[in-house]
Known about the structure:
Blueprint: E1 16-19, H1 29-40, E2 46-49, H2 58-64, H3 77-82, H4 101-115, H5 118-124, E3 134-135, H6 139-148, E4 155-160, H7 166-177, E5 181-187, E6 195-202, E7 208-217, H8 221-233, E8 239-243, H9 249-258, E9 263-266, H10 270-285, E10 289-290, H11 300-306, E11 308-311, E12 318-321, H12 333-347
Parallel strand pairs: 1-2, 4-7, 5-8, 7-10, 8-9
Antiparallel strand pairs: 3-11, 5-6, 6-7, 11-12
Helix pairs in contact: 10-12, 11-12
Amino acid sequence: LPGRNPDALAGRTGNMILTEFGLYPKGGHPHWDVLFPITTRKGFKFIMISTPRGKNTKFYEVCQNPDGYYSVHFCDIYKSVFEEGYQLYDAKGNPFPQHTRQEQELAIATFRKIYNSESKWAREYECQFTGDLSSLIPWAQLERAADLGTGLPFDVVRVDGEQPLSDLFSVLKLEASGGARIEVGWDVARRGHYSSIWLNIARHGRPKHLRFNVLLHNCPFETQRQFVRACMDAQRYSVGHGDSTGLGMESNEVLEKLYRDRWSGFTFTATGKREIASALVTAFGDGGQSLPPLAGATKYVATDIYAIQKDDTGANLNIEETPNPLLEGSHCDVAYSGGLARVAGSKNAVLPVPTPLLTKPAGW
């Protein structure tokens, strides 16, 4: 019984066989909740068959069967061919010779080359619960963001230990004096990961502009806090969010006291990650965020955002971090700092009024 609406099947009685249960809407949880009681109340069987999909599905839960409650049967391509004589065919439709184990193994290996989709082989033919991961932000949207940033200044500042950053602050103050607001996102780390600070410049009627990305490594927390404070002190309209999970808790408590209405700590729970994901999807989907060029030394920003993967095959959106090939050691730290800056800006939507002209222009 296929079907997207479990309530439409609620009146049925007898044994139920539901095919491709791993693909059911919302992970199959609503179907299970409605149909399991109906089927089992008179001793009938509830049978689900599926190719594995994401791990946040009811099918995955049942297949794990840690307490042995369910009768679980598993059959991948190897069992099908080795034990049950399943016949494979070549690219011309001719049956492979499969009389010996060596011939069977060769048939599977050749068939795998014919399928020519390594990313899906484990799921479709080895029945592994690999999940359906895809990039949270499509590359085309990142290209558009880079186009929006064409000609706009961007600087990356790398700090290992301690070093002065006075030039950065003077630029921020100059930007702020022209009626822009500084929006700060801080993904906190000490040694293992990067401590990334994303500094957006927000102006009325324009996409938010990534002006600076500061990557700190082996930098004392007090030094990091002083830097963030200098960003917040650049103008009275500056707003920010910081990672208060684990190591960042104390730092964010200090900043929340100093900037009560302008700074908030953010906890990286599953719900928190989904909020950041939503902010990033909105920012790049609506064309509301610029990025530096997708070439040369600045491409790492886009690849860090692209490294955030999503699995939305089940009832909840799951977010996972994958390596950034252009920034070794990053666990999407840059992307998350950008998401924090976007969340801070959305919760403090009032921008400063542009600085009035000191003199009237000619012909006034």
